Every structure is written in structure tokens, then in C-alpha cells.
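Chapter review: from sequence to fold.
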Amino acid sequence: MRCGPAFDTEALKLTLSRAIPEAGAETTASVLNSLIKHLAATPEAQQQAHEEVTRILGNVRLANLEDEASMPYIRATIKEILRKSPKFSSPLTFCAKC
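The C-alpha cell string follows.
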């Protein structure tokens, strides 16, 4: 599929290979910033999240992917932050209209 008269697949691959890691870092930082603001503004949510993390992990280790199923409040909080302040927009949308 061609997108415009001078569409260059190799140039697009190069651009995306440079942009995607940067976009991922920016998105992660932005979501973490929103999460911190939410928890600072809602002490009861902060307390409940803290209690869940302490109950599952104690004060001895960091969370890993296997812990996700055991922390429904943390998972729901993160999903709510993503819902309230979506940060994703695809760099490929310009081509979807061709």
C-alpha cells in the first residue's frame, strides 16, 4: 500500500525505530506523573494502595509481573489513570487516511 506519491518504507522504518523508544519513555513518565498527582490529591486512594502493596509485598521486595493478579486495587488505579488522561496517539494515523 502506498501513502502519497513519495512514500518511502525504509524512511518510515527508520523514523519509527527512533521515535518509538522515545515515545515510550515520555508516555511512561507522563502516566507516572498523573498517578502521583492523583494519589497526592486523594489520600484515601493513596492509603488503600499503600495497604495493598504492603500486604502483598511487605517491606522486603519490589513488585513483579506475577504480583499483578494479587493487587486488584493497584491495577484498577493504574487503569483509571490511563482512562482519565490518555497519553497515546499513534504516529501511523497519517497513513491510515490514505
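Two observations follow directly from the output. Residues 68 and 75 are 7 Å apart (CA to CA). The mean pLDDT is 81.
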